[in-house]
Amino acid sequence: MELRISFIPVMEEYRLNANHIFSRLDLAMLQDDILNQMNEEGFDLKRAVSINQEDIEKYFYSM
Question: Global pTM?
Answer without folding.
Answer: 0.54
